[in-house]
Write a structure and sequence with these properties.
The complex is a heterodimer of chains A (377) and B (286). With 377 residues, chain A is α+β, with helices and mostly antiparallel strands. Chain A is built from 13 helices and 16 strands. Classes of the chains: A alpha+beta (377), B alpha/beta (286).
């Protein structure tokens, strides 16, 4: 099969139907409660046709577009973590009987998930989670199963202004180059609304075979490239990553941490919307008689006092220390731990911070005004 | 050999505890007991001194507890537990015949092999003696491999001293030096009063700084001053090992709670050489 094909909007609908017929639960962007999030979809009309978003630090609005673009917006408050690494998850259950406690491991729900509309930053976020949850000495069984099954339809970022994005700085976008089964580039022109399709895997090719498609013309490919290049050229934020981990670790006592702490509410929104934040808390839940119990985990945030509660007190009492933990984990210690940044430049934490704290600005301030030699190498 | 925790080998999930039976219980102090546990499944354990297990009381919760002894029978464990929270209160209330869930072993152990042919300083504050006791048991079994072995131990009060029988037994063995101090003596106390770091200068004649391995576990403030004192006496940072405590919830570097700088103390620690910790030593609330 030639590397690039064309499908039209009907083909997109058929793709959804086909994936469902193959046994996938299809999840894609949908407009709800004034934001474009991800949820189960069953037809093209569930997608936010003709909608776009306006984002800035601490600000998110949706509005109607002039055209009928299906994917003409940046990422919203949800990420695919919500489905690959859901919260809560039951780790095990135990039942008390005459001969003691019997423990069993709940089976996975077996749902095969297909994600429609995965942006390049989020593909990289999934690859970051793969490193954390699959490539270490221990594998997270629940993530492993969902990840193995997941069918990824990427969408190249085009036809919107990426105001809080900075994927170009991190080399994570806007073009999705690998890690997908199929990748779509939307072309919205008055007469012909269509998608350039790139195949990324054998199972992607098998799905595309079953859709009405035709080879892409050089003019289609050129239009697709122009649209992606336009997104790359209009990145609203940037982050200087060279030398950043060492610069941050050399400045753990920088006075600017106090300045940020005066604004930070420690609400944890940034960790909630972050596509790579993986920290969790485990809890025991029993029935009223105490004869059955289950251990569950739910996503946690390093912004709470309880997160570091050890031997009778919280070790990170100040908001300064909690914000510093989050930022230095994302942009410094993550590199040492997992060989990659914990940030993919999606900009969600900037948009959804209620006071508009922008990590690209804060990291740059600390790196450029701090000490360069003393401290941690 | 599969080096992953026993749990994963048996159940396929690192989160699912294995059933163990309480086979012995010894009261150490008012609030602290030592439990002996035996595996109810057919598997062998390779827990090293310094490592920890996650202990579950079904229906209550799970906590990280270090290995405090080295039972000779395969599939057995020994843990010293102080009642400080809801899970540990339930743990110390367990009796022989009770069931308990166990995951592990997790984390790094004490550098016992690296200390072959060296002087060894074991320095403990409070409950910090528990993880060091497992190291001492291992050292005593191969006493000929080590030169001087010195134990320095501080507790809040005479009533809080752990392993009292062991302590007198160790003291009577000519080849181990034990110094004990308390913060708050009672009228019957005839030993030393004061903080642990002050004991170090009393034993400097016993060790050769550049051929010494020091292993420390105790409250962070105690460890900070102990390290300074050891440095003052010429022990290099890479020969000083600390066991750090954090709010470990998974034991496998996934829950994130135990991070200290770049380290997940549950898998990169809890035992780390001070040379790796030194860059972060003075950072508040790290």
């Amino acid at each position: 099969m030639a590397s690039h094909m064309i499908i039209d909007v009907d083909g997109l609908g058929m793709l959804i139907t086909l994936l469902q017929r193959e046994g996938y639960r299809v999840i894609g962007p949908t407009l709800r409660d004034g934001a474009i999030g991800y949820d189960v979809i069953s037809q093209v009309d569930d997608l936010p046709l003709g909608w776009e978003d306006e984002q800035d630090a601490g600000r998110y609005r949706v509005k109607q577009r002039q055209d009928t673009a299906v994917f003409g917006y940046a990422v919203g408050p949800h990420s695919w973590k919500r489905f690959l690494y859901p919260s809560p998850v039951v780790l095990w259950r135990a039942r008390h009987s005459a001969d003691g406690w019997r423990i069993n491991q709940p089976a996975e729900d077996g749902a095969r998930l297909a994600f429609l509309g995965v942006r390049s930053c989020d593909l990289h976020a999934i690859m970051v989670l793969d490193r954390v949850l699959l490539r270490g000495p221990y594998v997270d069984p629940s993530y492993a199963e969902r990840r193995r099954q997941a069918f990824l339809v990427a969408v190249q970022c085009a036809h919107f202004t990426p105001r809080t994005c900075f994927c170009v700085s991190l080399g994570t976008g806007p073009r999705a180059t690998h890690g997908f089964d199929l990748a779509l580039t939307e072309l919205v022109q008055p007469q012909t609304h269509r998608f350039v399709v790139e195949v990324g895997s054998a199972r992607g090719a098998a799905i595309l075979q079953q859709l009405p498609h035709r080879p892409a013309q050089p003019s289609d490919l050129a239009a697709a490239e122009r649209a992606i290049a336009q997104t790359a050229a209009s990145m609203g934020r940037q982050l200087q990553t060279a030398g950043l981990p060492a610069a941050l670790l050399a400045n753990l006592e920088h006075p600017h941490w106090d300045t940020i702490a005066q604004r930070c509410l420690a609400c944890g929104n940034c960790t909630l919307v972050c596509p790579t934040c993986f920290c969790f808390t485990a809890e025991e839940r029993t029935d009223l008689t105490g004869a059955t119990t289950e251990r569950i985990r739910h996503l946690d945030t390093c912004f709470t006092l309880s997160f570091t509660y050890t031997a009778g007190k919280s070790l990170r009492q100040s908001i300064r220390s909690r914000y510093r933990q989050w930022l230095t984990h994302k942009l410094a210690t993550w590199v040492e731990q997992f060989g990659t940044f914990g940030c993919v430049g999606c900009g969600r934490c900037i948009t959804w911070c209620p006071v508009g704290i922008d990590l690209t600005v804060e990291a740059a301030t600390i790196a450029s005004t701090g000490q360069t030699t003393k401290g941690v190498e | 050999m599969d080096h992953r925790a026993l749990t994963t080998q048996v159940t396929g999930s690192p989160f699912v505890p294995l059933p163990f039976l309480v086979i012995g219980r010894r009261r150490e102090t008012r609030d602290t007991v030592t439990l002996r546990l035996r595996s109810l499944c057919d598997a062998t354990l390779h827990a090293q001194p310094g490592q920890f297990m996650m202990l579950s009381v079904y229906g209550i919760g799970e906590v990280p507890i270090s290995i405090s002894g080295l039972p000779r029978r395969p599939g057995e464990l020994e843990h010293t537990i102080r009642a400080v929270g809801s899970v540990t209160r339930h743990l110390v209330a367990l009796h022989r015949g009770d069931h308990i869930g166990v995951r592990g072993p997790f984390g790094t152990g004490w550098p016992l092999e690296a200390a072959y042919g060296q002087d060894v300083l074991l320095i403990a504050g409070g409950l910090g003696l528990a993880p060091l006791r497992s190291a001492l048991v291992a050292i005593l079994r191969e006493r000929w491999r080590y030169r001087q072995v010195v134990v320095l131990y501080g507790a809040r009060s005479p009533a809080d001293l752990l392993y009292r029988r062991d302590l007198s037994g160790w003291q009577q063995r000519a080849k181990i030096t034990v110094y004990v101090t308390v913060d708050h003596p009672d009228p019957s106390w005839r030993g030393q009063v004061g903080v642990v770091p002050n004991l170090i200068r009393q034993v400097t004649a016993l060790f050769e700084p550049t051929n010494t391995v020091a292993m420390i576990c105790g409250p962070e403030i105690m460890m900070r001053f102990t390290v300074r004192e050891l440095q003052k006496h010429g022990i290099p940072d890479e020969r000083i090992f600390l066991s750090l405590e954090r709010n470990m919830q998974c034991g496998i570097g996934l829950c994130g709670h135990c991070q200290f700088g770049p380290f997940f103390l549950c898998k990169d620690g809890p035992v780390l050489p001070y040379s790796r910790l030194a860059p972060y030593r003075d950072i508040r609330e790290l």
